[in-house]
Amino acid sequence: MTKDSTPRRSVRLGSHTYLPAPKGTGPAKGVLMKGGLLVTLEVTEEILQEFMDAMTSLESQVSERWAAGHAS
Description:
This protein is α+β, with helices and mostly antiparallel strands. It has one domain. The protein has one helix and four strands; from the N terminus they run ββββα. It has a four-stranded antiparallel beta sheet with strand order 1-2-3-4, with no helix packed on it.
């Protein structure tokens, strides 16, 4: 799967939930949500999305290594 075809999904960030912008709507449409309140991201959404993509990839890799290490 290429970066462009990777589905965007909500991600929990501590007590916040990050909701990425729908594909094709522009980088300023993502939001953070906490306690039912939405905080619109204007400048940082694209950077935050890249960070979350990197963290998701790292989490997947660590999970695979952890499972492989326990299977031995």
